[in-house]
Design brief:
20 helices, single chain, alpha+beta, three-stranded antiparallel β-sheet, about 45% helix, about 450 residues
Length: about 450
Amino acid sequence: MLKQPPMLPKRSIAQNIAIAISQSCWSTAEIAAAGQSVFSKPQAWIVELATELRTQFEHAPKFADLQSTIETNPTFLQAAALVKTNKAHNPTAFFYFNNTKWIDWHLPIIRDSRQLASHLGISGRTLHWLTSLHLPPDDRPRHYACKWIKKRSGSQRLIESPKQQLKTVQRIILQDFLNRIPLHNAAHGFCRNRNPLSFTADHVGKACCLRLDLKDFFPNIRGSRVRGMFGAFGMPPEVARCLAALTTTQTQLDAIEPQRPTGHRGQFSASQLYLPAHLPQGAPTSPAIANIMAYRLDARLSGLAAVANAHYTRYADDLLFSGDRLFGRQAKKFATTVAAIAIEQGFEINHHKTKIQFASQRQTATGITLNQHANIRRRDYDRLKAILYNCIQHGPASQNRNGIVNFHQHLAGRINWITQINPTRAKKLQTLFQQIVWSGTPQQ
């Protein structure tokens, strides 16, 4: 842990309180408990502050509004003034600046763009070129390869893959910055030691499962929010801007429209989604940033689920709730509340994908059935089994219809995923996989 200074400035104290409160449910008791957790000794005035915040804001405000409100709150200022003037005779009212708990994530200390470039192992000129903040979006170098892919639903998704130099820099940012930030316990997608099986573990055998989907999860996270996130980590404005520019992109119009499949989106909505600075789906840093940005969403939905005696987990953009029969009777109303909370946190629910599944139906999430025990869906197993059999009979190239690079690794990964869920079935697939004759071409 970092050595604590003898006295912290009021702004830092307010920021620490705001961080703690932003991770709590928006009730007076929860706000007070979160605010109290910042200090090593009891603070009687925290309850009064919590009551005033709850009265002022019916719903949880944005982080910036929360911090600025605390900084100007009379109760907060009075507590700080007692210390400043040495007039605090009541120990329960004393403002313990020097006892504040600092959260140390061991992030690199970066003071300016030159130091950032050095940490990333590139020159200042290269950093200037990769960020290109001095140029209009249409004139910036193209550091991403854009490709439309077809989803199972039939719609299209734009994959923006960074080119090698930028990808290398992003992996350093992922390792040295993003992976050090703790995620909410409800997050299971793209998290170490978590997977689809852990995502569904608490939802097996429940009377009702409610599935929701976040619409355009990655591109809906704008560059301004990412810049604010790095700023909240303590990065100077110049460094936060550079880090945000390295992990977001503004797609050029000519890269969107000519390749946009017919019927995917109208010209206006496609431009509205991809032209502003956004989180690209395809960058190694995007999943981690998205999980961090969804922390407060996870905290609020976990609290909402607890009130309804239900469970909540999230795998990337998939939200999953489960509970008893009473939860099933109020699932529609519950889904409406979830959608409202998502909007307040900067996300949007894709209502066409909302599903309420009861125990009498087949309950599934991320391809796993949940009714009695976690298992792979029969149709997915049969489909992969047929692909492996056809690879044996006709060669793997005949089954690689989408031109997947390293088809061998692709199939091995799918079998490994089934191994985590149903090892017995996976052994049968592994036996077929070992009978395939590979020619060694890049496509195989």
